[in-house]
Design brief:
The complex is a heterodimer of chains A (about 600) and B (about 180).
Chain A (H helix, E strand, L loop, with lengths): L1 E5 L2 H5 L2 H15 L4 E5 L11 E4 L5 E4 L4 H12 L9 E4 L5 H4 L17 H6 L4 H9 L2 H11 L11 H10 L6 E6 L8 H8 L1 H15 L3 E6 L4 H16 L15 E6 L9 H8 L23 E5 H13 L1 H5 L9 E8 L5 E6 L4 H8 L9 E6 L5 E4 L9 H7 L7 E6 L4 H15 L5 H18 L7 H15 L3 H5 L2 H19 L15 E2 L9 H5 L5 E3 L6 E3 L9 H5 L7 E2 L4
Parallel strand pairs in A: 1-2, 6-7, 6-9, 7-8, 10-14
Antiparallel strand pairs in A: 1-3, 3-4, 4-5, 10-11, 12-13, 12-14, 15-18, 16-17
Helix pairs in contact in A: 2-3, 6-10, 6-13, 7-8, 7-10, 9-10, 9-11, 10-13, 17-18, 17-21, 18-19, 19-21
Chain B lengths: L1 H18 L3 H10 L6 H12 L4 H11 L3 H10 L11 E6 L2 H5 L2 H12 L12 E6 L11 E3 L2 E3 L4 H20 L5
Parallel strand pairs in B: 1-2
Antiparallel strand pairs in B: 1-3, 3-4
The chains are: A alpha/beta (about 600), B alpha+beta (about 180).
Keywords (chain B): 2Fe-2S, Iron, Iron-sulfur, Metal-binding, Ubiquinone
Protein name (chain B): NADH:ubiquinone oxidoreductase 24 kD subunit-like protein
Family (chain B): Belongs to the complex I 24 kDa subunit family.
């Protein structure tokens, strides 16, 4: 028997460490010796913190929303032999949660199941056997061929064929080559790479070592976001363990191949996810992209040929080598092979990490796995690909998720952020939100991107404040075209996407803001006013306690309350708390 | 009079800067001097030591590496991780991710600003709180989220966020009354 706790960043944020402490204390006081394994995130984020009880026969019982008290109850139930404790059970090996049942896990195969700080745990799951196979039986060309057969495409966003990239890097010649792992996951709303690094760091290392062998690199660098301290820590541990076991360093596993990996922490610049900007940052410069070609595969870090691959791409590699490129190519759709991990978030009932074969429809992911919209409201759109992507309206939920179908909608596959929006999300406000982001993250090199995004943001802000003018939509479209055409890198080229897709599918919302000065979703604060209907207010005073701005006055001698508009922060707390039978707080005009 | 006091403050600041012990940063430079492209790593480690990047440290790095101060400053201002002003004792990182945004983070942040009487990127005059934004903290299923000194709080509402801040304030003022200043 043993206990396993999900201690990724998300599990810790949800209170996983308090559970660990409570369990340790309880066991100590009872004199029980039971192994507590710390794992990464299994992706059942909506149930965090998670606790697995693992029986000796291998059966696993997963409990959700565990706190200190519950963990002791679970411990007691199992030790007394009356478990599992149905009340808190969310999944078990006999009856997996719907959320997990409909997934196909290749990249996430070990996440939440093994101890990411133990190389032995990884090896028990066939870990590093792909590397052994490669070093013992395959030439670098054969490795590249296998990846080409698999038709694996880069999972960072652009979807370039990985095999082709490796081949180009290998054939670029020269004495020295680099393999770089892009772990600068910056899309707001995406956390797949973090979960992989925290939950299964050795899979990324193994993929990287194989890649290095294939392209002929002696040195690898992982460029990881500094905002992911736990991922960095687990990578450091994994690298040290791999060195100790002879999987990194001189003459790996007795072969002629030598290779080592170092970690470089990013310093917080979204644009550094672009490969030439990433290289500039590695060279200690401001992270500004440069013109391509020459591509990094010819002229990369310090001028040497470099292959830059995303975390998820590399984590696929060991599986492909073990099972063959054809097995991988058998999964997915005609043009997009294999699986893709998505970070399902927003207004969703069951949010978390989802891995499905390419070609699965959005509806299957959102309703089948995610359980639909959280609030009971209707789904309005899905935002895919973060600030470079776009909004796909509810009518198009039946499109398959693959590179081509998504780009036909105006959105992109991106790195895998999937944010579900319901009727209470304002699409103009969302476009403004993303433009605010890209405008701040623009490195400033290209005029169109630097100034154009600023002008677009100003227009969107104006519209959200009820000061939109006729012609604003057309102006936004015109600016978008200029920015996309004249920017050097993906950040600028794709920056207008959130605006263009929302105009394309939700033009009526823009028009309502501009012409009628109304926000149909009731989100744009400037267009809202909260009032208390004096005829309906019963003077209960609940809103006074709820108001964080202390702007609800009146109420003496059972008189109705009123809102001081000048101090109102428009948080809506009064509207939420006012009992339904009174319904005294209203937003006029909606 | 106004100008005089402003100059005096600047003088005081450079005086304080001059008092700074530069030996730890010199040690880092010594270790990294021969590594190509190590400027960002040096700045990161310097910030770990001082909590921010004082002007004198930037100048020292430029002098030691033989590069222009403008270049060091250029890099320190390009990346959001670097801070040129000291942070508050409690560093609030407010998540600006998409999931947080659609779950109403903006309104919570504005109430928080009202409560602390500072704007994003500022520190309260007592040095207790600084409010910063993060592109995404990656705990989207807890949205809306904020992180205070590495500890994540979520899902937040305006009331919850203010309660957390007030609790910290109360704990701080009681420890001051008790004479324990940490």
């Amino acid at each position: 028997m043993k206990v396993r706790l999900g201690l990724g960043s998300c599990g810790i944020a949800a209170g996983g460490l308090q559970v660990l402490e409570a369990l340790q204390k309880e066991m100590e006081s009872r004199g029980i010796k039971l192994e507590i394994q710390k794992s990464g995130c299994i992706g059942l984020c909506h149930h965090e913190p998670l606790l697995d009880w693992i029986e000796d026969d291998g059966r696993v019982f997963t409990y959700g929303a565990v706190d200190a008290g519950r963990s002791v109850e679970i411990l007691e139930a199992h030790l007394a032999g009356c478990g599992p404790l149905e009340a808190y059970l969310v999944s078990s090996s006999d009856e997996p949660a719907e959320f997990l049942q409909q997934q196909l896990r290749i990249v996430l195969r070990n996440c939440g199941r093994i101890d990411p700080e133990s190389i032995d745990d990884y090896r028990r799951q066939d870990g590093y056997s792909a590397l052994q196979k490669v070093l013992a039986k395959m030439s670098p060309e054969e490795v590249i061929e296998e990846i080409e057969v698999s038709a694996l495409r880069g999972r960072g966003g652009a979807g370039f064929l990985t095999g082709l990239k490796w081949k180009a890097t290998r054939e670029a010649g020269g004495l020295y080559r680099y393999i770089i792992c892009n772990a600068d996951e910056g899309d707001p709303g995406a956390f797949m790479d973090r979960s992989i690094l925290e939950g299964d760091p050795h899979a990324v290392l193994e993929g990287m070592i194989i890649a290095a062998y294939a392209i002929g690199a002696e040195q690898g660098i992982i460029y990881c976001r500094a905002e992911y301290p736990l991922a960095v820590k687990r990578l450091e541990i994994a690298i040290a363990q791999a060195r100790q076991k002879g999987l990194l360093g001189q003459r790996i596993l007795g072969s002629d191949f030598s290779f080592d990996i170092s970690i470089q922490q990013g310093a917080g610049a979204f644009v550094c996810g672009e490969e030439t900007a990433l290289i500039a940052s590695l060279e200690g410069e401001r992270g500004m992209p440069r013109l391509k070609p020459p591509y990094p595969s010819e002229n990369g870090l310090w001028g040497y040929p470099s292959s830059i691959n995303n975390v998820e791409t590399l984590a696929n590699v060991p599986w492909i080598i073990r099972n063959g490129g054809e097995a991988f190519a058998a999964l997915g759709s005609r043009e997009s092979k294999g699986t893709k991990v998505f970070a399902l978030a927003g207004k969703i009932e069951r949010g978390g990490l989802v891995e499905v074969p390419m070609g699965t429809t959005l509806r299957e992911i959102i309703y089948g796995i995610g359980g639909g919209v959280k609030t009971g409201r209707r789904i309005k759109a899905v935002q895919m690909g973060g600030p470079s992507g776009g909004c796909i309206p509810a009518e198009l939920l039946d499109i398959p998720v693959d590179y081509q179908s998504l780009s036909n909608t105006g959105a992109i596959m991106g790195s895998g952020g999937m944010v579900v929006l319901d009727e209470s999300s304002c699409m103009v406000d969302l476009a403004r939100f993303f433009l605010d982001f890209t405008q701040k993250e623009s490195c400033g090199k290209c005029v169109q991107c630097r100034i154009g995004t600023k002008r677009m943001l100003e227009i969107l802000e104006r519209i959200c404040q009820g000061e939109g003018q006729e012609g604003d939509i057309e102006l936004l479209e015109e600016l978008s075209a200029h920015i996309s055409e004249n920017s050097l890198c993906g950040l600028g080229q794709s920056a207008p996407n959130p605006v263009l897709t929302t105009i394309r599918y939700f033009r009526d919302e823009y028009e309502a803001h501009i012409r009628e000065k109304k926000c149909p979703a009731k989100q744009c604060q400037e267009l809202l006013q909260y009032i208390i209907d004096p005829d309906r207010c019963m003077g209960c005073g609940l809103c006074v306690y709820a108001c964080p701005a202390d702007c609800i006055k009146g109420g003496e001698n059972n008189q109705p309350y009123y809102i001081e508009q000048e101090n109102c922060s428009k948080c809506g707390a009064c509207l939420d708390i006012c009992p339904e039978r009174f319904a005294a707080v209203r937003v006029p005009g909606t | 009079m106004h100008f005089y006091s402003k100059n005096k403050r600047a003088e005081e600041k450079s005086f304080l800067d001059a008092q700074l012990d530069l030996s730890p940063v010199l040690k880092i430079i010594e270790e990294k001097r021969h590594e190509k492209g190590s400027l960002i790593a040096i700045l990161q480690q310097a910030q770990d030591i001082y909590g921010y990047l004082p002007l004198s440290v930037l100048k020292c790095i430029a002098r030691e590496l033989g590069i222009k101060p403008a270049k060091v400053y250029g890099i320190a201002t390009f990346y959001t991780q670097f801070r040129l002003q000291p942070a508050g004792k409690y560093q609030i990182m407010f998540c600006q991710g998409t999931a947080c945004h659609v779950n109403g983070s903006e309104r919570i942040e504005s109430t928080l600003c009202q409560e602390l009487k500072i704007k994003r990127g500022e520190t309260t005059p007592d040095g207790l709180f600084s409010l910063e934004s993060a592109a995404c903290l990656g705990c989207c299923s807890l949205a809306p989220v904020m992180m205070i000194n590495g500890q994540a709080y979520g899902p937040l509402s305006a009331e919850k966020a203010i309660a957390i801040i007030r609790k910290i304030k109360a704990a701080e003022s009681s420890s001051l009354v008790g004479g324990e200043t940490k």
